[in-house]
């Protein structure tokens, strides 16, 4: 299933396949999500996926009934 991924705050949209790694999709969109451990322990790569915090390094694009998801990369004001 093809999903439209909308990255905020950059307002970048790219298509992805359900199950594709989030970091790969971000890279293809020309964006970089900061990473640390690449195992989900350090939370350096935490973003909001449809309003829920996730670790980008261990998250894949979910199936979406609407065919789109929103990834907010600026949810942490410390970055």
From TrEMBL:
InterPro entries to which the protein is assigned, alphabetical: 2Fe-2S_ferredoxin-like_sf, 2Fe-2S_ferredoxin-type, Beta-grasp_dom_sf
GO molecular function, one term: iron-sulfur cluster binding
SUPFAM superfamilies: 2Fe-2S ferredoxin-like (SSF54292)
Entries under CDD domains matching the protein: fer2
Pfam family, one: Fer2
Residues covered by the 2Fe-2S ferredoxin-type domain: 3-77
Highest taxon of source: Bacteria
Protein name, per record: 2Fe-2S iron-sulfur cluster-binding protein
Organism ancestry: Bacteria, Bacillati, Cyanobacteriota, Cyanophyceae, Synechococcales
